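G., before I forget:
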Amino acid sequence: MADFAAWSRGIQARMESVLARVLPEAAIAPEKLHAAMRYATLGGGKRIRPMLAFAAGEAVGVDAARVEYAACAVELIHVYSLTHDDLPCMDDDDLRRGKPTCHVQFDEATALLVGDALQSLAFELLASPEACADTATQVAMLALLAKASGSRGMAGGQAVDLAATGKTLELAELEFMHIHKTGALIQAAVLLGGMSGGALAAEARTGLERFAHCVGLAFQVMDDVLDAETDTATLGKTAGKDAAQGKATYLTLMNAKEARIYARELIDDALAAVSIFGPAGQRLSDIARFIIERRY
Amino acid sequence: MADFAAWSRGIQARMESVLARVLPEAAIAPEKLHAAMRYATLGGGKRIRPMLAFAAGEAVGVDAARVEYAACAVELIHVYSLTHDDLPCMDDDDLRRGKPTCHVQFDEATALLVGDALQSLAFELLASPEACADTATQVAMLALLAKASGSRGMAGGQAVDLAATGKTLELAELEFMHIHKTGALIQAAVLLGGMSGGALAAEARTGLERFAHCVGLAFQVMDDVLDAETDTATLGKTAGKDAAQGKATYLTLMNAKEARIYARELIDDALAAVSIFGPAGQRLSDIARFIIERRY
């Protein structure tokens, strides 16, 4: 995993540089909005979704320079959702990536517009001429990202999450929520990375979909475990908040040891799914292993 | 204009039916979010942007069934922006289209997600296979809508508007704000309607752009005049609010009579721009005249 650690730091540095380039400069009007968009996006983040996009591109043999567009698009959707999530009317959180949240640093109206504009920018980047090798696939990529972000994807998952606060969910209900809230965008990251090179062969698409489904759930299981077991300073966001807010998590359904075993099973399934790519699927496998071994 | 009145009612009815079909049913999970998306979108609205899209399609000879996608996309972006605009951290408005605003009828978190999900749905619809005759133009349409919606378009205009509250703007600053806040999406409506049939010829594109620029500004001038002169019941939204909130409007720079003259000049310019389309441009001309003659 030493090699993976270097690779992931490389992706993080690359994303920092690419995002700094694609986000409008803070000197361009409206200055405050652009400064806030940069504040919310730059200087942190695990960049898991971009890693997945680059790794999926590698699995099917796409040039990394092309995958950058899909990687930025999914990351911007992710950052927009965090920015809106942190607002007082949602999770009301003050700390994100070790810094004051966007509405604390700026103001609520600005944070609202930051999220709105980051969503638009994600689609703008994915609609760049360089984002895909052929335009028919590119239109399908745009449709996929839109669906994954919307009411039957990420935004819908947020709505289910809000409705579930204070309630006890069964495992099937909890997974329905996560498949939407985080799974849809993780799946988009993987598929868009692969599609950047053009239409995917049926077998490759099926493999990537199964991988993404398992990795998405495992990521959420481990998020719940880490939220309960880790301190705020290490997480860079407020720890223990899910339990305090009465949110449904995996740890309301199983203990931490069981949750880790469940995540392990999901990761084994993910590893099996990408075996079809042979050595080209190595980065995808590395990410799957990282998700179960991460500490924050 | 009797014919135009019937045509515009026809577009309104058509949009009500198409939007009711493309919005997820309220019975589909997450039910509350879907109910709120339908509440915010259906049952009202002048549908000016869809009218512009259909009229531009007619000017360049595109089948109306194809233009429906672009028309829905721009209207959904418009509705999302109204829903977020009405939130307490923005304009804090209780009344829209004669009904309680979305966050009053539901709650703030839901209204936030409604706006987010409507933006995604707009891009999803515009990425439908039927939305354009060729995929290269369709990618350009998606890029155009994204740019018009984002920080250098509509969302950026909102940010300028927020920053300008309580300040006196010069005409050039006011127009910069409006060109972004409402002009960008009006221009997108016109261009996307035309592009639905495939790439536009240079002359047609220039004509539509000039038309859209003039009509967008004239629309805003008349909005300011009507906001100052009309009662809340007729407008269907809170009247006189701009002045009460210290917002910069055309009426802080000129009196109502001068504003009407200015709008008239803009409309004359718009009419000249679409003369290149001959009789096919009739609906665009009708809309331009409607904008200056409307009472609400």
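Chain B has a mean pLDDT of 93. Residues 225 and 242 of chain B are 11 Å apart (CA to CA).

More on Monday.
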